[in-house]
Specification:
Blueprint: H1 2-5, H2 19-23, E1 36-38, E2 41-44, E3 49-52, E4 58-61, E5 66-69, E6 78-84, H3 92-99, E7 105-113, E8 116-123, E9 132-140, E10 143-151, H4 157-169, E11 172-173, H5 176-182, E12 187-191, H6 198-202, H7 211-218, E13 232-236
Antiparallel strand pairs: 1-2, 2-3, 3-11, 4-5, 5-6, 6-10, 7-8, 8-9, 9-10, 12-13
């Protein structure tokens, strides 16, 4: 926020003409460039990739991986997906042994998924309460996607096996329709109610980082201003 303050003008002019109509509905930001979740689907517009997890799964992500958890929690099942840069083109099975250096894979098969080379292997879980451990490698364009899945003690191994493969099959390139969904955050112009604050408006905002401060900045009220009753206020929906 301190960095952004240098761009604030010394004096704010009153809006002219149909400014508020032009602002209403304007696309806000590009959160999908860092990753975005809608329902059980993960979108990443910078990588142009979409990963669909099983229905009703809880999906989260960090800078290094995407995680999906079954409705009953990790005790039922979980799948994580990581993107790797290939060091040298190898078969998916060789990637597991030579690059990942996994020596706990008890069996597996190479296959083709959506025209791409892939591998699914079963991991030794005899020393844990995991009923089924799976790893998967999927080549997609110039990337390698590494899938890791565990069926917990409350899960059904055969159901999980199908869900794991379905998740690998559901990794795909982003389409124009996906871009519309991924970039669905928009500016909405509202009329401030008496006593309404940016802290209150931020509670229902999809802005992930510093929502209250960002709303103040959008409305020229940073760092401490609050909306006045009857003012037009820009929020993000």
């Amino acid at each position: 926020m301190a960095y952004a303050q240098q761009y604030l003008p010394d004096e704010l002019r009153e809006p002219e003409g149909d400014f508020w109509n032009l602002m209403n509905g304007l696309v806000y930001g590009d959160e999908a460039a860092r990753g975005l979740v809608r329902d059980s689907t993960y979108y990443h517009s910078a990588l142009r990739v979409v990963i669909e997890f099983p229905d009703q799964w809880q999906v989260g992500y960090s800078s290094s991986r995407v995680n999906g958890v079954a409705p009953g929690g990790t005790g039922v099942g979980s799948i994580s997906v990581m993107r790797h840069q290939p060091v040298k083109r190898k078969s998916p099975a060789k990637y597991v042994t030579d690059v990942l250096q996994r020596d706990d894979v008890t069996g597996g098969e190479e296959l083709e998924i959506n025209g791409n080379e892939a591998y699914i292997g079963e991991v030794d879980t005899s020393e844990s309460n995991v009923l089924l451990g799976l790893i998967g490698i999927l080549y997609s364009r110039n990337d390698v996607f590494y899938f890791k899945g565990e069926c917990g003690p409350k899960g059904d191994p055969e159901t999980f096996r199908k869900e794991f493969r379905a998740t690998m099959e559901a990794l795909r390139s982003m389409t124009q329709d996906d871009l519309k969904i991924a970039n669905s955050q928009r500016i909405e112009v509202i009329v401030a109610e008496p006593g309404q604050t940016y802290a209150e408006l931020a509670q229902n905002s999809p802005i992930r980082d510093y929502p209250e401060e960002t709303l103040r900045l959008l409305n020229g009220h940073h760092p401490n201003g609050e909306p006045r009753a009857g003012d037009y206020v820009k929020v993000v929906r």
